[in-house]
Write a structure and sequence with these properties.
The chain is built from 2 helices and 19 strands. It has 414 residues and is mostly beta strands. The strands form 2 sheets. It has a 16-stranded antiparallel beta barrel.
Length: 414
C-alpha cells in the first residue's frame, strides 16, 4: 500500500564522457552514483467507486447513482526516533476533507500519545481501517458512534496484545459525525478497552476471539445556528431520521458500546451493541414560545458473519488471497460471502417535541447479503443487497416505504 518517498537514481559517468567526445568506448569503466533522500515518508491511499441502484421505488424518490465514495491519500512518516505522524485527506465529492491528521509519541507499544484528529475510541467496527470494512456501508451501530474528532489520547497494547486500551479528551462530535473545531468550551471524554485472551496462542482456533467495551461522555449547549444534533442515514445515503430545526442539544451526551468478535480460519463473526443518550431542548414557534426538554435515547445493534469460500483466513485487517487473479494460470483470487442483520431504534416515547414523525422514522431494521471478490491484496469488488424496513416516517403515522438497494464497490489500494 505504501511506496517509499526516498529518491534514488543511477548515472554513468563514462556515458556522459562519451556523449561529450562523440566517441563510443565499451571498455570505459563505469561508476554508479546513488543519491537517496531519507525523508522518512510513505505515500499510499485508496479509491472506492460505488454504485447504488434502488428497487421498488414506485414514487421515484431515490436516485440511482455512480459516485466516488472515497479517494484518500495516506501520508505517514517519522520525525526522529520517538515521533511519527499520519495525514489522510479525502478528495471525494469535489472537496477536500481531512480525516487522520495527528502526531504520535511512542517509546513503547504499551504507551503511545496521539495528538490531532483521529477516530474517536469507542466502537470496534469504527476502529477498523476503512479499506478493510467488510460491507459497502457500515452497520447501524456506527450511525450513533462518533467518527473523527480532534483531541489528545493515550493508547497501547499490554501483555503481548492480550489487552488494548485507548482513551482521551476530544472536542465532541455528534452521533456518526466528524468535527474539526468546537463550537463551545465543553469537551468529551472517550475510551475503549479490548481483551483478546488467546492472543499469544498462535494457531489456536480462539486466537482471534476478542471482547470489548467503549464509552463517551460530554455536554452540549446547542444554538439554532449550531444545534449539535445528528442526522441518520440509510446505507443508500438517504436521511431517515433528523431533528426539527427548533431542536438543539442541551445537556449531557452519554454513549456506551459492547462488542465481541472472532476470526477463526475462513470464518469471522461480529456482534456490537450501542446506546446513546442525549439531552435536548425544543422551542416552539408560537407566541409565547413553549420550551420542552427531555432525554432522547437511541439504541442500535448489529450481528454479521462471513466465510471465505476459497479458504483464506478471515481477518480484522482484511483477506489476502493466496494467488492474485490470473485466469490463465487457474487463479481467481479469493471469494468471501457476507451477511448482516442490524437495527437502530430511536426513542419514540419522547420523539414528538423533537422529531417530525411524518418525515422521520423511529426505527430502521436492515438485512444485508453479499460477497467480496479479492482480485489481489490491492483490488477488491463488493456487491451488497440490503433491505431496510422502517417504523413511522410517513403521513398519518404510517411507516415510510422500505428501501431496497443494490450497493456495489470497486476498491483499489495503492
Amino acid at each position: 500500500m505504501a511506496a517509499s518517498a526516498a529518491i534514488s537514481f543511477t548515472t554513468s559517468l563514462a556515458a556522459q564522457a562519451q556523449a561529450d567526445s562523440a566517441r563510443a568506448d565499451s571498455t570505459s569503466p563505469k561508476q554508479t552514483v546513488q543519491i537517496a533522500l531519507p525523508v522518512g515518508v510513505t505515500v499510499g491511499g485508496f479509491i472506492q467507486v460505488d454504485g447504488r441502484v434502488f428497487f421498488n421505488d414506485t414514487a421515484d424518490r431515490l436516485i440511482n447513482d455512480l459516485t466516488i465514495r472515497r479517494f484518500r491519500i495516506d501520508l505517514a512518516g517519522t520525525a526522529g526516533k520517538y515521533v511519527s505522524y499520519h495525514i489522510q485527506p479525502d478528495f471525494a465529492g469535489a472537496k477536500v476533507t481531512l480525516n487522520d491528521v495527528y502526531a504520535e509519541f511512542s517509546g513503547s507499544p504499551a504507551v503511545k500519545l496521539r495528538v490531532g484528529k483521529a477516530k474517536v475510541p469507542f466502537s470496534l467496527e469504527r476502529a477498523q481501517a476503512t479499506p478493510n470494512n467488510i460491507f459497502v456501508e457500515q452497520g447501524a451501530t456506527l450511525a450513533i458512534a462518533p467518527n473523527y474528532d480532534v483531541g489528545v489520547q493515550l493508547l497501547g497494547d499490554l501483555f503481548g496484545g492480550v489487552l488494548f486500551y485507548q482513551g482521551g479528551l476530544f472536542n465532541g462530535a455528534a452521533d456518526g459525525a466528524s468535527v474539526d473545531d468546537d463550537v463551545e468550551d465543553a469537551k468529551d471524554v472517550a475510551g475503549r478497552v479490548q481483551i483478546t485472551p488467546f492472543a499469544q496462542q498462535k494457531g489456536s482456533l480462539l486466537n482471534g476471539l476478542s471482547f470489548g467495551a467503549g464509552a463517551t461522555h460530554g455536554t452540549r449547549h446547542g444554538a439554532p445556528a449550531t444545534p449539535e444534533t445528528p442526522t441518520y442515514k440509510t446505507a443508500g445515503q438517504n436521511t431517515f431520521l433528523s431533528y426539527l430545526s427548533t431542536t438543539v442539544a442541551e445537556g449531557d451526551v452519554n454513549r456506551v458500546s459492547v462488542y465481541g468478535a472472532d476470526y477463526s480460519g475462513p470464518v469471522s463473526v461480529l456482534g456490537e451493541w450501542v446506546r446513546s443518550h442525549e439531552d435536548l431542548r425544543s422551542t416552539s414557534t408560537v407566541t409565547p414560545p413553549v420550551v420542552t426538554t427531555g432525554t432522547f435515547e437511541n439504541r442500535a445493534y448489529q450481528v454479521y458473519g462471513t466465510i471465505v469460500l476459497t479458504g483464506e483466513c478471515a481477518s480484522f485487517r482484511g483477506v489476502v488471497p493466496r494467488h492474485a487473479f490470473d485466469p490463465a494460470h487457474g487463479h481467481w483470487g479469493a471469494l468471501e460471502l457476507v451477511a448482516r442483520y442490524d437495527d437502530l431504534k430511536a426513542d419514540d416515547a419522547t420523539a414528538a417535541p423533537f422529531v417530525d414523525l411524518t418525515k422521520s422514522a423511529t426505527r430502521a431494521t436492515s438485512r444485508t447479503i453479499g460477497f467480496n471478490w479479492y482480485f489481489s491484496k490491492q483490488v477488491r469488488a463488493e456487491v451488497n443487497y440490503q433491505t431496510t424496513n422502517f417504523v413511522s416516517g410517513a403521513a398519518g403515522g404510517a411507516s415510510r416505504p422500505a428501501e431496497h438497494v443494490l450497493l456495489t464497490r470497486l476498491q483499489t489500494v495503492f
